[in-house]
Amino acid sequence: MGKNDKRLIVKNGNVFDSLTGKIKKNTTIVISGKQIVWVGDDGSFEKEKNDQVIKAEGKTILPGLVESHVHLASTCSAQSERVEMRTKTTMWHYIALNNAQKHLASGFTCVRDCGASPGWIPSLRRILDMGVFAGPRLVVADNGVAQWGNQEMIGPQYVIDYYKNIGEVKAGVDGVIHAVRQRKSAGADFIKTLTTGGVLHGMESKLGTSLFLDEELEAMVKEAERIGMHVASHAHGLEGIYKAVKAGIHTIEHGSFLDEETADLMVKKDSFLVPTQMALAGLLSDEILQQLPPEVQIKTKETGIAQKKAHKIAFERGVKIAVGTDAGTPGNFHGTTGTEIKYMVENVGMTPAQALQAATIVGAKCVHLDDKIGVIEKGKMADIVISNKNPLEDISVVENPKNFSHVIKDGKIMVEKGVITYFSP
Ligand SMILES: [Zn+2]
Questions:
Q1: 397 C-alpha to ligand 1 centroid (Å)
Q2: How many CA atoms lie within 13 A of 254 on its CB side?
Q3: Which residues place a Cβ less than 5 A from the ion ligand 1?
Q4: What would the pLDDT profile of 64-98 be if each residue is shown by its tens digit?
């Protein structure tokens, strides 16, 4: 930081301590450059001449929120193939930027992107890290590591090519190792894979059976970890969840049909669950559901019922649960992750404090950034949300970005009352 840089002070607020789930009253935070350099009782704060001060008396101060599962370059439409046809590749970059900003504007200063076409999101991450645009800290998968053979690909060639682009891999242990290294060189921070079919993939795409051989999954985890990456697996059905956890996969996405035994294994293996309740809520909304093929409607309803039970089981057995929506899927809009936090209370059975922990410290661990974010303490990056109302008293406060007077990322005020106010100097 240069001699003339002002310190930014968040003065005398009620800080949510994500480690204990409790509020520390009358606390002042000092930010210098991108980092928090001091946190303490307001009474012992020493003001300096050039300090820029945000008065936070009576306000609740949260660590920047963490969204652990989105697709920034996806349409949120039930007619994604039609949208695809009308969108040039280069247009997607701007759409992804806009979506990233919607997350930031709603208080989410860190977002994990779980898959897009090759090269798109690693480039966006670099641009945002450079401070060219306001946007969240991104953790990116690049395109997924998938496999073929789950179902017959039907549709025009451009649609088949599009899906191949999202995740193609050579088979076998060597093929998987090659794919992991290829993602690393493409700029991925972690590996996204799929160990079961998807809800939207049609009736032939089975949710119940595991898509990879055990030795392929084990090789994927081993190679990813060797080069500093974690693995996240899309997994709805029980077998695919169980095998992913057994192979050491770090995070389970969706976890729709998991049972007690699998939950216990997740606790033992220290793996995380990202429930993505918003994805099913979006699909089950009247407007979207009627646009889906009849067989997918059946699959969606069954999965919706199973999920509510499964996520509760996971929470009750002590599985670590992070907040992520899968935003980008039909009817699941970017910038609405506050509702997923509310669902943690309403559907999963968390207290408001536990739900906020899921969106801060647990999320930071889930995306492997807990050395930098997730808690307000000296030495951490200055990612902070200042809320006019207390979400511990009413969790729905986090659904409305207008409740947040300021969103600070990397020590810069980027959003005020839900509107982006940061522009690159
Ligand atoms: Zn996803």
A1: 26
A2: 32
A3: 114, 326
A4: 999 999 999 988 888 877 787 788 888 999 999 99
Provide DSSP, 65-76: EEEEEE-TT---
pLDDT at 209: 74
**Residues 21, 372 contacting (CB under 8 angstroms):** no
- Give me the mean pLDDT over the 112-122 stretch: 93
Given a cut of 60, whether residue 139 has pLDDT beyond it is yes
d(CA 103, CA 24): 27
Domains of the chain, earliest start first:
8-64+373-420 (2.30.40.10), 65-366 (3.20.20.140)
Cα of 301 to ligand 1 centre, how many Å?
Answer: 18
Q: Are 262 and 245 in contact (CB under 8 A)?
A: yes
Is residue 238 within 8 A of residue 258, CB to CB? The reply is: yes
Distance 67 CA to ligand 1 centre (A): 12
Are the beta carbons of 139 and 188 closer than 8 angstroms? no
Neighbours of 158 (CB within 10 A): 10
Tell me: pLDDT of 166 over 80. Answer: no
Whole-model pTM? Answer: 0.95
